[in-house]
Amino acid sequence: MTEMIIRRVGLLALILFAVSFMTFMIVNVLPGDVAAVVLGDGASPEQVHLLREKLGLNEPVLTRFVSWLGDMLRGDFGVSLLYGQPIKPMLATRLYNSLVLAFLALVLSVPVAILLGTVTAMKRGSWIDRIISSLTAVTFALPEFVKGLALILVFGIWLEVLPGSSLIEAGRHPLSQPLILVLPVLTVAIGMQPYFVQITRAGMIEAFRSDYVRTAVLKGLPPHVVALKHALRNGVLPAVAVIGMTLGNALGGLVVVETVFSYPGIGQLMVSAISARDVPIIQSTVMIVAAAYAVGNLLADIVSIALNPRLRY
Amino acid sequence: MIQQRLPTGTPIPLPDATLCVDGLSISYGAAKVVRDVTLRIAPGEAYGLIGESGSGKSTIAFSVMGYLNGGTASAGRITIAGHDILTLPDRKLRRLRGPVVSMVFQDPMNALNPSIRVGEQIAEGIRYHTGAGKAEAEARAIELIDQVKLPEPEDIVRRYPHQLSGGQQQRIVIAMALALEPALLILDEPTTGLDVTTEATILDLITEIKQRSNVALLFISHNLGVVARMCDRVGVLYAGDLIEEGPTAEVLQRPSHPYTRGLISAVPSIAGELEMVGIPGSLPDLTEVPKGCIFRARCSIAIAACGEAPVPMETVRPGHASRCLRWRDCLAELNPPQAAAVRAPLDGEKRLEIDSVIRSFPGARRLPFLKPRPAVQALRGVSLDIRAGETLAVVGESGSGKSTLGRLVAGLDRPAGGTIRFEGRDVTALSRERTVDDQRAVQFIFQNPHSALNPHHTVEEIVGRPLRLYLGLQGTELRRRIVEILRAVRLGERYMTRAPHELSGGEKQRVCIARAFAAEPRLVVCDEPTSALDISVQAAILQELQTLQRESAHRTAYMFITHDLGVVRQIADRVAVMYLGEIVELGATRDIFSRPQHPYTEALLAAVPELRPTRASRMRLQGVVPRPTNPPSGCSFHTRCPRLKGDICSQKAPPTRSKASGHAMRCHHDINTLKALQSAELENRTEPARP
Amino acid sequence: MQNASASASSQIPPLRRYRLRPVDLVLGPVILVVFLMLLVPGWIAPGSPTEFDPMASLIPPGGDYLLGTDEFGRDVYTRIVHGARPTLIVAFAGAVVGVILGTLTGMLAGYAGGRVDETLMRFMDALMSFPTLILATLIVVMLGSNPVNVVAALAVVFWPRSARIVRAVAMDVARRAFIEAAWVRGESHLFILFRELLPSVMNVAVIDLSLRITYATMLSASLSYLGVGVHPPTPAWGLMVKEGQQFIQFASWLVVVPCTTIAIVAVTCVLLGERLRELLAPAHRGEQ
Description:
The complex is a heterotrimer of chains A (313), B (691) and C (288). Chain A has 313 residues and is mostly helical.
């Protein structure tokens, strides 16, 4: 087991390296020129040339990659072109805010998804199954902003019970204003739901069909013991394995959700950087999100190894 | 337990019968898979239910547990120790499962929960049904594990299923079933899928359980030999009808139904005196059950009356009944099986020469800086040759390396050392790297015909492919040739446009054979070609292969890989016995089947449950097969050998001994010592072969 | 013992297995309308989607303007109809390219195994270690904001995901004996890949495509909502939502209408995908 975990951690380092390399390459090697992107369409060749000098773009790509990676490892994410300030402090609070959002959504989502997945699997083909399955299929297909705006319209504008915007005043902790978190958390949680439910449902159906569940039934055990002790243990394993991936997708979805609610997280920082063409911030935020994604996957891997005796021994 | 019967065949209710099944009919949707089945099992009695796939035997087993799983019992009653199973509400039924009736399943690997320790899996039922405490239940679990003869029960309780071997897992399942001392124990193919030596020890355990308790056994099997060994009475199921029932010895020796007879003649025996014969035709469609005898379409002695009305159970003798109008003519009119042709080694030119072939599968790498896991040593220096027109059987249990050997010959894999020569040419390479002529000359027939045919191609495309590829045939010439080949494997022209899913298992394997022979091969590697098929189909396919070999213009040789010694006896000229990647004995079929043999060969033969009781050795192998990653030193069989000579066995590789020309075995005992040891055991044996 | 008939039913050609279901009666018309919007938008909405009309600013739905007007007086209905192309064609093209790439890669990796598989899949893993939206955004921003680059970005996003699914199936099929039979015959790798393997992974690829189209629609709408890949005054649905969001308090139709359109199309995609799955890979429900 330790061996597998060490292996996964090693893999994580490798993935992070690959991700940083690819991020850097997409930004620096694809046909678009960074200086031109930063300056926009109206820039003159001289301006572009000056900026290239200033950003050190005339050096070989690999040299720049190595120094960028080295800076990042030392915690230096560079200076924002737009604000002229170091990026690191901006990233820290934004990342924290985003993690709060993602974590709350995950905590809300997982138990509900396991419950729904189990119920639909046990009542396969019944009206409960059909309703839940159709609902999850529909929420799966809706973009994050449609879900978010629907919630804003219903709770923020028509019912006027919750704030439709989630701006946080500078220096305040997101949890100090719990009300503003409700709608964004709900949106992210609903977004995570369908995939979890489907995987849990499939896993549980497989488990209920298995010979070992038949053995448990024929041992005379009551249905709740069969479901909770025999089926659930194996049935949720596939769902646990994808928690990391779902979390990652949710982090991607955060970009939209944070924009919808004007929530000051890392996604919103990235979007505003995109419209301002602030390449250093774009690069750093992408790196951070990808890193969070990779770490999430690692944690999920470790949990599923711990839960599965076949992998543990 | 012989009962009196009314003329209609309805048994008089036995007042104290443990299990009474009366007129049971079960259907899944439109398919009536079990129809009007009546049977009784008395306390302490073992009743065997024999049938091929589709006979409904497992359906009956599960319905006795009250577990229909989507099916409906449209008629009939099941009573166990006075409880009416089919009418009980779930809550009460649950109370019976375990204390009154329990079950041992086929495929113990899947029957056990992979993420719960085996001790807990035994203990939880005890706690639930008796209200025992945790410690008490676990103590009982340890006791049970000890009873099923697993070593170190205190250690075993804490293991997970995947940490046990197949035979050990089945012992756990048996312990689980015995936990609450049920009145009825159902065994659903308990040894199918296990190696023959493991099967023998599991059957011994069941025999012992039967002797020491008064439990009634319902033993479900497709293997007539197993039933013959284990059961007092048998019932024969065909397509959902109980067609014959009676005392085991009587039914198996004087079968009074054409189907039973056919089934018995289809079983290949290691005694090998009789030729096996298949049953033509296939299972009827159970959504539209014919009015008369269900076997009529495949029966060679059927008369008009057979199709007119349901056939009642007719009493053959007290306690022996048959659902056949012509049971009296059964013995007279059906051709008696013919004596098997004696096969002997041929002295044609050498087709295939395998010389000290080695193959190991490297273990997965763990971490970059650690050593990789040890390699699986699948083949450790194997040498043999096959002559033109000859059939060489390669026998062994799982993990012996026999399949790997076949794959190397066919070029599906490449050896790590040694050479393979075909007709004198070196073909030690993947088939892709061989010449077109060599590709064409060596063909392969796979174990599982269901996966050997591309589901998206028609029979015409499948059989035509080698003809296009090797012979460049096209158009009408191609078609003509395909029809010809299909006829040769007894499939008509109408099969041309069929897709694999429209074929039965036997028909699929015929298509595979047709594809192999379309290339006009000079060597065919057959990898367990009948192990996925029913016995009656197996016999026909084996006959087919023999006919094709006899009639082939190229004197086609077979390398026949199998675990079934009965099949070996029937079709092989010579036999190679493999254990842990080595050939331990090689010789003419008659030399392999006659004493003295290598101790492993002896144990293999002793383990085969035979239809007719024989004066065979009762040798059993204890312990588990050593890991192929770390084969034992000296003689690789020494860890399990019952004829261990001494320390030399674990220290030095055994020398080669020969008892006849062309025979070789590797053992530290010389031939005469082995002979003496083996006859001594037979003389000392006081108890008969059948308990 | 019932398995034989169940597995046989999955082999019947899909079209012969088709049965009309009530849901088809809803799906049919919606698909027809979407196709009209894509093929002949000018025919069902003759007006201009981009021309300003200061006199008709922010008129609520009903009356002359079926779905109201926006702040520049543009008819929302016309913009929705003309917005189908920039939203959906991009999504469709991106999904198709991605799934084709993914199918080829997955098939190759699953069939070849070993080092080829390892190399290809590690590359796919690296691509997959970016959340979808982030990777798509990054690519479009760096390549330049235009529809072709959005197609490329979507394709890159779906490529590894498709490849993984197809690879799993291909690995399973590649282990079947009929592939080994082709090996023993000495068939070329190309023959095995395209004649033996492809037919078996085709169903999965088509089902995957239906899923990816749904997902691509969502992603393309999200990108345009973020203002990535499209520029005003293009009437892409996501962009319309973004522009309308500032008026959500008093002109909610500017958000509701495009959102609802996206929702309808998305749900249609899901249902269509499910029908397709029923036809191509019927789960053996209730047969056991």
